[in-house]
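$ ./design --mode recover --in tokens.txt
reading tokens...
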């Protein structure tokens, strides 16, 4: 047995020495993975029944002591001896005997641990270290049961700050009980920092008006949660969005005058600073933390209102910096250090040059990258401490894209550690409000693992360690189910788990026709069924709410897949009934009954989904914002109920000898279409266009360089004829058509509009595009107009064929759609290529 080597010095480290027990390469089931461990020579050890404490003051150890009770067994021999060796020479001697020196400089959060036939010996320099040692013991007990393996360990964190940020302002707001549950699980994974991204959901005495009655978190609740977190060695950091993303507050009449626009707090109004002063007066003391997060990201609207003259004079960067300086002064008066997002400062380097260097910069990116240096180096070179912020990204998703989240988290944290970052903040964004936090825990655990001990070897062993340490599931069923569900993200119809598939329009309006694509949905159903099968085999998880959330996602995907397939079958059955009725009434009736049975099943399936989602929501969250999701789920169920009613009436009419209505009258004029249409775009307009459907000769993008040069971005503004326009996202709920008349009901006569997307190609190539429009359309690729068809017509998808010369890498696609009167819309696809997309960014698969 190779001893652990102690290196002297205040920040000394212990070398990693791993001697597999019995020649086995099985990793120790602990998350995060320990820095240094050796297996003992002896057999498995019965869990001790006695607890002995080494500490002069037990106040800081109360939570560790309470949790240590869960480690004890019913054995007659052995003692769990834990505490601070400097308070007990006996524990110091016992650890030294096992070549674990009690004076090892393992820092404030490290610990040493020995398990052998005589007992369990756990020592640390501080109560935090003892607490983390107990978390390791809890996981070992979960993985091994009544007998623990003999081992020796020395463990400590690599990153000083290891945290999670949970967005609670754009969707679900957790109950206080669930927040405490989060604290306990974060602490078990040795995470020491937690912050909740908040906009309008803080209910202060001075400004309680903008907080929702069913979602506002009071100062007293924050104070209670902060104390609870502190007992678990987690610092709860105060958080209030103090600049951008202010739309929820500005929507209140009492505060709308403070807006630079509908989403930005004006940086030049004294009343803005007064508002923040009032809020900080109440919030900062409630958290009792050394930091406070002011966010201040994505401030696209600077210069659009009160600040325009100052921005025109000094520039965006300086005006942004002035507001940050005001916030910094307010927080300095209250004795706390400012956190802020670094995105705007990275776009405007003059901000970095000007701001006080004691601000901690939180630099974020949520994609896998070959290098994260562009997000770290400029901030560090400017003299700031950096916290790297990867993400378990839930924005507008059914569940996170785990493969991308893992790559992002592992890569960003490892590079941050190598570059001496202060720490990691793993972010969970819930804008869209669909995903449940229960499906985020795998990504949270990945971040905890990476921040404690970033090492490539740990990624390969993570699933094995997590499934035993976190889930007490030797077969790995829950983790395998998560990976099975994540495989759905790579399939064409799900677009990387986005909730677009959840809200796609499934049924046409009465009298209308619609296409629906079955492509990929049988594969979705098969994977969802496989995940359900795995979950059915899993033992009860320590966190039943997490397991139930994963169950729900599997059920949801199965329902989404079967809905499309059953709808197409129902439409085909009804069409057959209409055709058969004149010659074979029995066959027609059988097909009517088949269609009716399918619609009844869909109605019940969506009712069940709504109830299960509501149940899962209440397990985590307050009532606030639930209706944003359930109203839409219920509307889908009601749509199926309406068609079911029409089919029941059709069956009655058939039995009375009446002719069946055409499919469009019962809302089943559905046809299968395998095309993959571009449904998400950046759009600008509508612009006045007196020529109507005869064309739009005006270049409305002249101030952006013109139609052949412009490369739009979300929220980018430009002027035309004295009017300011902004590029905005548009996502069509329909399979093929982008219905512009529905999106712009007040501006759809004699107008024109641009739609923009990027298209990534694996190589230089010319591809075939199919285009339809109502009315005229022009197509530009990389600044060259390749198609122009000005005509008054109804939309027929795929009516025009266009050749697009693409270059390897990023291509810029711009459509210009003109409108006379009546319907207005377009459709666009590449029929010969398998595509994937994220928002308005499309890529051709190799």
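writing sequence...
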């Amino acid at each position: 047995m190779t001893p652990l080597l102690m290196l002297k010095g205040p920040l000394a480290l212990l070398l990693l020495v791993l001697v597999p027990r019995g020649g086995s390469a099985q990793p120790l089931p602990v998350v995060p993975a320990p820095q240094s461990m050796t297996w003992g020579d002896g057999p498995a050890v019965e869990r001790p029944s006695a607890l002995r404490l080494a500490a002069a003051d037990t106040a800081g150890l109360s939570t560790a002591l309470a949790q240590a009770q869960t480690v004890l067994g019913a054995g007659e021999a052995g003692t769990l001896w834990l505490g601070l060796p400097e308070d007990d020479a006996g524990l110091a001697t016992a650890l030294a005997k096992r070549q674990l020196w009690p004076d090892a400089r393992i820092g404030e959060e490290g610990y040493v641990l020995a398990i052998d036939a005589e007992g369990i010996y756990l020592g640390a320099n501080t109560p935090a270290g003892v607490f983390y040692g107990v978390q390791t013991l809890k996981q070992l007990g979960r993985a091994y049961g009544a007998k623990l393996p003999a081992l020796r360990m020395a463990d400590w964190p690599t990153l000083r700050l290891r945290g999670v940020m949970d967005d609670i302002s754009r969707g679900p707001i957790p109950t206080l009980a669930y927040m405490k549950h989060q604290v306990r699980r974060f602490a078990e994974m040795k995470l020491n920092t937690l912050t909740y991204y908040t906009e309008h959901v803080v209910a202060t005495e001075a400004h309680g008006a903008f907080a929702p009655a069913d979602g506002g978190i009071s100062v007293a609740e924050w104070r209670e949660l902060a104390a609870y977190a502190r007992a678990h060695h987690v610092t709860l950091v105060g958080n209030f969005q103090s600049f951008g993303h202010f739309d929820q507050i500005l929507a209140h009449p009492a505060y709308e005058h403070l807006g630079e626009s509908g989403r930005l707090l004006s940086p030049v109004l004294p009343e803005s600073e007064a508002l923040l002063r009032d809020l900080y007066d109440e919030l900062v003391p409630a958290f009792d933390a050394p930091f406070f997060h002011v966010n201040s990201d994505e401030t696209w609207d600077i210069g659009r209102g009160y600040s325009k003259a100052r921005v025109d004079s000094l520039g965006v960067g300086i005006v942004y910096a002035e507001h940050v300086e005001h916030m910094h002064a307010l927080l300095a008066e209250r004795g706390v250090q400012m956190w802020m997002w670094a995105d705007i400062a990275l776009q405007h380097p003059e901000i970095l040059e000007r701001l006080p260097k004691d601000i901690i910069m939180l630099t974020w990116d949520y994609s896998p990258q070959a290098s994260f240096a562009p997000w770290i180096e400029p901030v560090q070179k400017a003299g700031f401490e950096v916290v790297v912020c990867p993400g378990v990204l839930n924005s507008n998703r059914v569940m996170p894209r785990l493969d991308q989240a893992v790559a992002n988290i592992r890569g960003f944290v490892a590079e941050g550690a190598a570059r001496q970052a202060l720490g990691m903040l793993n972010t969970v964004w819930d804008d869209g409000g669909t995903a449940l936090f229960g499906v985020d825990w795998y990504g949270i655990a990945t971040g905890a693992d990476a921040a404690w001990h970033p090492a490539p070897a740990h990624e390969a062993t993570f699933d094995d360690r997590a499934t035993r340490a976190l889930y007490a599931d030797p077969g790995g069923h829950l983790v395998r189910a998560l990976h099975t569900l994540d495989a759905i993200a790579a399939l064409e119809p799900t677009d990387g788990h986005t909730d677009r598939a959840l809200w796609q329009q499934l049924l046409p309006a009465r009298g209308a026709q619609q296409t629906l694509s079955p492509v990929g949905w049988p594969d979705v159903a098969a994977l969802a069924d496989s995940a359900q099968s795995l979950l059915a085999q899993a033992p009860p998880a320590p966190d039943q709410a997490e397991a139930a959330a994963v169950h729900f996602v599997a059920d949801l995907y199965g329902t989404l897949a079967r809905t499309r397939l059953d709808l197409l079958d129902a439409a085909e059955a009804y069409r057959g009934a209409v055709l058969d009725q004149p010659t074979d009434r029995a066959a027609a009736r059988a097909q009517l009954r088949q269609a009716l049975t399918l619609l009844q099943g869909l109605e019940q399936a969506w009712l069940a989904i709504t109830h299960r989602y509501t149940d899962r929501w209440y397990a985590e969250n307050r009532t606030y914002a639930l209706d944003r999701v359930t109203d839409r789920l219920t509307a889908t169920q009601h749509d199926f109920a309406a068609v079911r009613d029409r089919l029941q009436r059709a069956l009655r009419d058939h039995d009375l000898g009446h002719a069946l209505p055409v499919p469009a009258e019962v809302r089943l004029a559905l046809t299968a279409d395998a095309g993959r249409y571009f449904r998400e775009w950046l759009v600008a307009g509508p612009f006045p266009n007196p020529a109507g459907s005869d064309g739009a000769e005006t270049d409305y993008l002249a101030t952006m360089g013109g139609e052949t040069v412009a490369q739009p971005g979300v929220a980018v503004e430009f002027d035309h004829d004295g009017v300011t326009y902004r590029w905005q996202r548009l996502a069509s709920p329909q399979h093929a058509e982008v219905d512009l008349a529905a999106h712009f009901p007040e501006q759809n006569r004699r107008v024109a509009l641009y739609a923009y997307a990027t298209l990534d190609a694996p190589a230089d190539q010319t591809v075939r595009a199919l285009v339809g429009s109502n009315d005229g359309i022009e197509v530009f690729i990389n600044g060259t107009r390749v198609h122009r068809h000005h005509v008054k017509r109804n939309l027929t998808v795929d009516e025009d064929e266009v050749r697009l010369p693409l270059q390897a890498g990023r291509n810029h696609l711009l459509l210009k759609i003109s409108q006379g009167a009546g319907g207005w819309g377009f459709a666009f696809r590449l029929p010969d290529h398998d595509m994937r997309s994220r928002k308005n960014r499309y890529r051709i698969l190799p």
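exit 0
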